[in-house]
UniProtKB/TrEMBL annotation:
Keywords: Actin capping, Actin-binding, Calcium, Cell junction, Cell projection, Cytoplasm, Cytoskeleton, Repeat. Residues 1-43 form the Gelsolin-like domain. This is Scinderin. It comes from Ifrita kowaldi (blue-capped ifrita). Residues 93-103 have a biased composition (Basic and acidic residues). GO terms for cellular component: cytoplasm; podosome.
Amino acid sequence: GKDANPQERKAAMKNAEQFIQQMNYPANTQIQVLPEGGETPIFKQFFKDWKDKDQSDGFGKVYVTERVAKIEQIEFDATKLHESPQMAAQHNMVDDGSGKVEV
């Protein structure tokens, strides 16, 4: 991991080299070193319970609450649009809806 000291990193590499020898893999078998958090999906597929940082479960909107803007809900009354003919015209409200409809 990112907090491993140089001795731990060397020991991990030595373990990987020993594993390659024990499994009789070719001497030119590559050892891949990945940074913490940079693991590929191909690597992660071998770990059933692997969870990434900030990973969500399921579908839907996913966000961190500390980063979402606070939105004030303001009540809206559509009938107020009819009080101003200019506003009604701007929003294509051709009449006030008080008449009768015949089909």
